[in-house]
Input
Amino acid sequence: MEERIGLDAGGNLVRLSWEGSQLVEVAPVQGEPGRVFLLPLLVDIQVNGYAGGDFNAPDVRPEEVRAITRRLWREGVGYYCPTVTTGSRERMLRSVRTIAAAWREFPEVADSVLGVHVEGPFISPEDGPRGAHPREHVRPPSYQEYLDWQEAAEGRVRIVTLSPEWPEAISFIGRVAGEGVVVAIGHTAAEPERIREAVEAGARLSTHLGNGAHALLPRHPNYIWEQLAEDRLWASFIADGHHLPFATLKAMLRAKGPERSVLISDAVRLAGMKPGRYPRLQRTGGGAAPQRTGAACRNPLPGRSRAPPSSWRCQRGTSHGVLPRRGGADGLFQSRPVAGASGRGQMVPRGPCQLHPGAVGRAARPP
Ligand SMILES: [Zn+2]
Output
């Protein structure tokens, strides 16, 4: 019989005992001198909102950024990139500015936010690849607008997701990537040749590969194969069991390898909320329509071009994507990211470590 101290799915410190692949006992513990075993916190590079908070709400405030940060800690997410999505220039700038203000004001935000991810508005205008981004705010890449984001973010924009199909895209990618910002390909209808040019110019990530795409594509070549085969591109995946069928996720993870795969939640404000009916946030006008959170992560209808927004928790994705032996002891170690660990918060038994405030608050009270 083997045993180890770890965190259960609820973030509680527990002693796990198992024989072979059979879990024998999970017992709560208060902490044991010299034996506390901690797990790396999750890193989520695409979070639009969580638990009722929304970075893209027109009236988002710094306190909301702090509240989202603290709620994410409870899910084991220690580090993340608040994601600002397609909208008017003013609304996007306001979101970026608010995140920067929260960074300045609240130490927990400064510690947890790795940088701002701007997804859009320089994406494909086509239905399908565009996903849920509002058509009227999609526009061609503008380096000046990027500079305005960076100014509002006080230099903290770290990821920009765009489509290379725009004529302006390739030079934009070269300039932005040259500044050390990760340029990601996403929501794209680009020809494979354009994908190759984008990578040559410095693009290094595919955003939620396999989603934000046409429902029907030429079997080959197409922009999905091209990105899958390009070893210079990392890829993020929404591994919630719905956005990508299991066989697709498995094949994509194998094509990229764990070292180039990043699981993301792409969570929206409904994530982390109890099942129920909530008003849908209208960012483009129109009345509020009720939406069940339970419906937000079901499979799209056949022929639908996109999956609905995510209301799942990043923590669960590790069991869909990486840890298929759910019954075994490994299945409980859900706080292990596939890749993308920041290096901070790495824990080694009895080794030196710097405890993340989220971990200390949850379970890791040192004896
Ligand atoms: Zn997206």
